[in-house]
Amino acid sequence: MTWRPIFDAAVADWRSTLITTAQLLVAVVASVALLGMVTLNPYLLLGFSAVQGLLFLAMACYGAVTASRTSCRVCHAAQTQLPARARSGAAGDLLRALARMTTVAAK
User: Fold this and answer.
1) Rounded Cα gap, residues 96 and 12, in angstroms
2) Fewer Cβ in 10 A, N or C end of the chain?
3) CA 30, 69, 67: angle at the middle one, nearest 5?
4) Helix, strand, coil percent values for the chain (each to nearest 5)
């Protein structure tokens, strides 16, 4: 068992990087909490209070990934559920532009 798959996932694309970052932030907070609770060291307990803010950063990372995946699904669903004649008009142009924007943003 090696760490190689984790590092490969971290450099794959921005979504994987954000998820890996969020998981590492949560691990840091959990480690400081565990050390503080086991040792009852007041400095580690104070450190735990200080690093709890990293959980908000982790939630923001998860939220960014979830929002990007949701917008891509909504755009794809809207584009595939339109009748063929609606896809060729102005609504189709708008949906294609939206699909290009979400594709570019996802890369």
Assistant:
1) 26
2) N
3) 65
4) 90, 0, 10
From 95, 101, 73, select the one nearest 82 (Cα to Cα).
95
Split into its structural domains, the chain has a count of 1
User: In terms of pLDDT, which residue wins out, 65 or 4?
Assistant: 65
pLDDT tens string 42-81: 999 999 999 999 999 998 888 888 877 666 555 555 555 5
Q: With 0-12 CB in 10 A as exposed, 13-18 as middle and 19+ as buried, what is 39? A: exposed
How far apart are alpha carbons 88 and 20 in whole angstroms? 41
Of 52, 5, 56, 3, nearest to 32 by C-alpha is: 52
Q: How far is CA 27 from CA 17, 24, 88, 93, 99, in A?
A: 15, 5, 49, 45, 35
What domain range is 61 assigned to?
4-106
pTM over 0.90: no
